[in-house]
């Protein structure tokens, strides 16, 4: 009787050890996958990005170089259309990407080119306050790094939705400077939503501000892209999908009107224009050789392959490079592989996973009997 009890005790102890070992393996795999997909992948991907070099090195010309990051269309979800899981996933992705980029790349100034929020155009005062608090957490930055924000149509509404209250509410939080100068480089942040050209009070004020600072400009940043017929001439991995590139743009909705674009180019005479709004990348050369860069969305919610622009700027030269963030489908595929591996691990532990040869032999026997 004592021998039977001893044997049973040993079997029970062995079973407990096997289960503990399985649990340890499962916890280790889950922890490793989470660590990789939610933290390490951002460092591995963004680490490959390098600042571009200007044609004339700053130390040779006696000019200072400014490191600037440009991103667009973060679309922080609100209380109406934002499912909690979608909100959690997308905002965590943007927070990790932004904080990793700040740590690795050390920019001096960051520009966000509109559509900071998804529901700013209709959010209540309390919802607006909640969205702003989340934005400040996601895009927190050291004091020596400047953050400049341009208003987009989702922040203050399109022309017919825009109001003085919404503009003032936005400006109270972000205090956008129309003209911002640093290291001899002038930036103009344009409220392109107000460039409707119909003579409304807000539109007239916006045009008057642009005219007032037009004598000092050599760079422009705005939300709406300048006028173009479509994205037909755009190319690259993060351009609009092929089936969407030939769809004509609606003036004042997908892009500025032809008239407003011509006014901006004439008043400001920029050497570079960066814009958002379309969620896709594009390069357009306008009259007098002005280059416009459409910056893709920074969020997985709008694209599988988000990115941002890195710019090395001097008063006379600029050089741009694109930095891609981790692809969302890469992260999802990693999770799927991990789930499959865990399933195999559990099946093997409980001896429910037969060897391929034995499985094939049993299958052939069943086929012969039938």
UniProtKB/TrEMBL annotation:
Ranges for domain Calcineurin-like phosphoesterase: 67-280
Organism of this sequence: Puma concolor (Mountain lion)
Cofactor(s) recorded in Swiss-Prot or TrEMBL: Mn(2+)
Name listed for the protein in its UniProt record: Metallophosphoesterase 1
Residues spanning the membrane: 21-45, 332-359
Membrane topology: Multi-pass membrane protein
UniProt xrefs under Gene3D superfamilies: 3.60.21.10
Signal peptide: none
Localisation per UniProt entry: Endoplasmic reticulum-Golgi intermediate compartment membrane
Keyword Protein biosynthesis in annotation: no
Gene Ontology BP terms: endoplasmic reticulum to Golgi vesicle-mediated transport; GPI anchor biosynthetic process
């Amino acid at each position: 009787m004592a021998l039977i009890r001893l044997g049973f005790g040993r079997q029970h102890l062995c079973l407990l050890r096997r289960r503990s070992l399985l649990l340890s393996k499962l916890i280790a795999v889950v922890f490793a996958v989470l660590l990789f997909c939610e933290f390490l992948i951002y460092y591995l991907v963004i680490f490959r990005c390098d600042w571009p070099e200007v044609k004339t090195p700053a130390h040779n010309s006696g000019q200072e170089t400014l490191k600037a990051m440009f991103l667009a269309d973060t679309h922080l979800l609100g209380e109406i259309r934002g499912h909690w899981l979608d909100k959690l996933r997308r905002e965590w992705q943007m927070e990790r990407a932004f904080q990793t980029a700040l740590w690795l790349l050390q920019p001096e100034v960051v520009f966000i080119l509109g559509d900071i929020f998804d529901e700013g155009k209709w959010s209540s005062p309390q919802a607006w306050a909640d969205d702003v608090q989340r934005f400040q957490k996601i895009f927190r930055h050291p004091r020596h790094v400047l953050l400049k924000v341009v208003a987009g149509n989702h922040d203050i509404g399109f022309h017919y939705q825009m109001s003085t209250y919404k503009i003032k509410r936005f400006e109270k939080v972000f205090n956008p400077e129309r003209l911002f100068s640093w290291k001899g480089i002038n930036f103009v942040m344009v409220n392109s939503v107000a460039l409707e050209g119909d003579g409304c009070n807000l539109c007239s004020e916006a045009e008057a501000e642009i005219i007032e600072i037009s004598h000092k400009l050599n760079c422009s940043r705005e939300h709406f892209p300048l006028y173009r017929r479509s994205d037909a001439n755009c190319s690259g991995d993060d351009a609009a999908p092929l089936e969407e590139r030939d769809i004509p743009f609606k003036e004042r909705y997908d892009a500025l009107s032809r008239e407003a674009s011509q006014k901006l180019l004439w008043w400001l005479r920029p050497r570079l224009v960066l814009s958002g709004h379309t969620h896709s990348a594009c390069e357009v050369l306008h009259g007098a050789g002005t280059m416009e860069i459409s910056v893709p969305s920074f969020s997985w919610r709008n694209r599988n392959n988000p990115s941002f622009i890195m710019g090395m700027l001097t008063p006379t030269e600029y050089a741009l490079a694109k930095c891609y963030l981790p692809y969302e489908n890469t992260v999802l595929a990693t999770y799927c592989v991990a789930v499959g591996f865990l399933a195999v691990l559990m099946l093997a532990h409980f001896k429910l996973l037969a060897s391929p040869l034995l499985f094939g032999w049993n299958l052939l026997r069943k086929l012969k009997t039938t």
